[in-house]
Amino acid sequence: VACSGSQCAYHADRVVVPRNLTSPVPQDVSLRDAAHVTLGTIAIEALRRTSCTFGETVVLLGAGMLGLLLTQLSAAAGVYPVAVDTNTDRLDLARRFGAVLGIPAADDDGVRGIRSVTDGFGADAVIVAAADPESVLINFAFDALRPGGRVVALGDFGMTIDRAKFFRAQATFVPSIAYGPGRYDPVYEENNVDLPINAVRWTENRNQAHFLRMLSEKRIDLEPFETVEVPFERAPEAYRRLLGADSPLTGVMRYPVGETQ
Length: 261
Prior knowledge:
By secondary structure, this protein is of the alpha/beta class. The chain is built from 10 helices and 10 strands. The model has no long low-confidence stretch (mean pLDDT about 95).
């Protein structure tokens, strides 16, 4: 199985994870790929929060692990992704995954680029998937929107909103809460009381299962992602790499194969 949950999905010899935070891994999906279920589910929930439909355009501020997963998810859903990041190598990877445009800076040229691929209207939604203590990203998001568009808060960024930009965009501004409905609800997570599908179509557990299905169907490809992969006893090395200036996109820790894996 693949599991999520900061309260239970630990690195340990044995863990006890509630049913609603676990999903079976398809036979044709490697455990290495399935280990990314938490990140994949976070990306899925963020895309759902945009309310984008087939043919619309979403701007992804940040082409890190989440931004590149969002690029693949958007393209698979028939939504046109635009990637924004200062890292040109990651922009190249975003284009490989289906981005219709890669923008190297959140500035006026970037806004013009977005309007050029949206018939002059602006994007239907923006997901802020980057970290920046300043408020440049959120206000750029408002500039990039068509009137009535939607901004989804995913990353950790400053929120000093330019009132004129916000009102001009007639924007809806919403948070994306981790893996989806049910997260942080002890009745759902610890007591395993599901949310009925007629009321909540996509819970966090159903989002998890769908990410694994997309891996199985090859709609999501993790192979091109630069990865630091180490045995568990060398875990500090992986964290040092991930926290470095030129960090890989993701890290994988391997456990010894034997009685316990």
